[in-house]
Structures are given as structure tokens and as C-alpha cells.
Write a structure and sequence with these properties.
Blueprint lengths: L19 H15 L12 E6 L4 E5 L12 H11 L5 E7 L11 H9 L5 E5 L5 E5 H4 L14
The protein binds zinc ion.
Length: about 150
């Protein structure tokens, strides 16, 4: 199977959390997952690959539905797969789309789902060619509401 060329952008804003080879692998797996996207309504395929703290990778794609609100994003598909198999500590997720000139960013709902599982892991937002921008979950969703807040009423 032919692999797409990967060009690693030089810069993350928050320090480099993963080795370059790990980043490349995560992006490639996200691009592979994108091929399975079920998106007949938007025709906007998205793929994601999620790296757990212990090194396992779960991929996901967007899955739309004729009842539009039931559609699920690629990021949440990957996270739900991981959670359902007993993994809930994450290091990074790579998100891929066919956008050539912009980095694909997670929607607000996905940011909140990511934040449920920690603030300090990394989100690699890529262009179609594999170049990326990276932010922490906290940077994408500052002043967030999370699990700890439920215990602050006493
Ligand atoms: Zn989303």
C-alpha cells in the first residue's frame, strides 16, 4: 500500500511530546482511518489516531447518519473505542482530513470529550500533506469544566 508523504512542520507551540517517528506513525494511521469515513452527507472525511499512555493506538473516522445529529466525529470514535477496551489515559491524538491549506481542528464537542480524560495531552491537527500544528487539550479548551469540578460544591 502506498504511503502518503509526510512533512513534519518544525514547530509545536508546547514542546515536543512525542518522538518524530511516533508523530509520523500517528498521522499515517489517522490518514488510513480517514479512508473508512462514512460521510455521505458532508463528503468531508476525517480520520483520527489516538495514542494511549501505554503505547496502544486506536483509530477512528467520522460516522454520519441520515438523522444528522447522530453523526459522530473521528476523534470521538477513536476515544470511544479506547475507553470501551479499558484505556483512558492518553498521550496524543492526530486528526486528519482532506484540507490542503488549513489544519483540521476538533469541534467543541470533541474538545470537551478529550478534556474528560485530562488537560495535558496533545492534539496534532494536520493538513492533507501531513504537516501539523499541535496544541494541548488545555490550550484548545481553556477555563474548562471537567470531572474534578463536580466535587467542588462542598
Ligand atoms: Zn468533533
Amino acid at each position: 500500500m502506498a504511503q502518503m508523504p509526510i512533512n513534519l512542520a518544525p514547530r509545536p507551540s508546547t514542546g515536543e511530546p512525542l518522538e518524530p517517528a511516533q508523530i509520523e506513525k500517528l498521522i499515517l494511521l489517522g490518514q488510513e482511518a480517514k479512508k473508512f469515513a462514512y460521510c455521505p452527507y458532508s463528503n468531508f472525511p476525517v480520520g483520527a489516531a489516538l495514542l494511549t499512555l501505554d503505547g496502544k493506538i486506536f483509530s477512528g473516522c467520522n460516522i454520519e447518519n441520515a438523522s444528522y445529529p447522530l453523526g459522530t466525529c473521528a476523534e470521538r470514535t477513536a476515544i470511544q473505542k479506547a475507553i470501551s477496551e479499558g484505556y483512558k489515559e492518553f498521550r496524543a491524538i492526530a486528526i486528519t482530513s482532506n484540507m490542503k491549506n488549513d489544519f483540521i481542528a476538533p469541534c467543541g464537542a470533541c474538545r470537551q470529550v478529550m478534556r474528560e480524560f485530562g488537560k495535558h495531552w496533545y492534539v496534532y491537527m494536520t493538513k492533507e500533506d501531513g504537516t501539523y500544528d499541535v496544541r494541548t487539550v488545555h490550550e484548545l479548551l481553556p477555563a474548562s469544566f471537567g470531572p474534578d469540578d463536580l466535587h467542588k460544591t462542598k
